[in-house]
Amino acid sequence: MMALQSAPQTPTAPPYAQDIAAFKQADRQSPPAMGQILFIGSSSFTRWTDAQSYFPTHPILNRAFGGSTLLDVTRYVADVVFPYQPKQIVIYCGENDFAADSKLTAQDAVARFKTLFGLIRRQLRRVPIAYVSMKPSPSRWNLAPKFIEANRGIQEFLAHQRGTKFVDVWGAMLNEQGQPKPEIFGPDRLHMNASGYRIWAPLIEPVLVR
Q1: Are the CB atoms for 113 and 70 separated by under 8 Å?
Q2: Per residue in 94-126, is it b (16+ CB within 10 Å) or e — as a string?
Q3: What confidence score (pLDDT) does residue 13 get?
Q4: Is residue 22 part of a domain?
Q5: Which residue of 38, 63, 133, 141 lies most exposed, with the fewest beta carbons within 10 A?
């Protein structure tokens, strides 16, 4: 009796492979200039489609992909960072790590950030790096203690690294009652509207290199 042969399995593409392919296709069609300020991370940057208009004197290249975690950005660092030879890297990422894994600790998230930071530093030793703190999203308010602790851990780590900045957006996004300002978020209570980005811009602008 002949043994049954299993059907060949199609390799499963890693998460966000289509986003990375889209970046590469866009680069082929219109190669971006080298030496820009590179925004990477998750959807809070992805959705900031008019970021350049907030920073008219700074050349901005946005290569964030929505929903990504620090692990995802680390996986694709050779695709979304190194090819562009940026003069500065600005990172917003971390929220999704906690949302995707209820057991993840703040220390775990900080360790993930350190891994990403180390990979970038080994390849781009002198490029300044800025990290924008995790924001107080209303839909994830139950995770606020973890966000706060992880923000603090990343801030303390960066304080001992050369050429780095930590941008704290947390407090500016809270109202007088210490709650997230609902008017700066969209209907999903997760992603910001233009009012939210208007809060971010003056906090980020001072750390951007000239």
Answers
A1: yes
A2: bbbbbbeeeebebebbbebbbebbebbbeebee
A3: 85
A4: no
A5: 141
Q: Which helix (H) or strand (E) holds 164?
A: strand 164-167
pLDDT at res. 166: 98
Write down the pLDDT at residue 15.
Answer: 94
Question: Could you list the mean pLDDT of each consecutive 10-residue stretch along the chain, which spans 210 residues?
Answer: 52 91 98 98 98 98 97 98 98 98 98 98 97 98 98 98 98 98 98 98 97
CATH number reported for the structural domain that contains residue 158 in this entry: 3.40.50.1110
Half-sphere exposure of 94 (CA within 13 A, CB side): 32
Is 23 contained in some domain? no
Residue listed under structure tokens 């000239």: 210
Give the pLDDT of residue 12.
84
Length of the chain: 210
Is 193 inside any structural domain? yes
Sole residue written with tokens 């350049």: 52
In the chain, the number of structural domains is: 1
> Are the C-beta atoms of 60 and 51 separated by less than 8 Å?
yes
Which helix (H) or strand (E) element contains residue 80? helix 77-80
Of 25, 123, 30, 141, residue with least CA distance to 78: 123
Residue 43 resides in a domain: yes
pLDDT of residue 8: 53
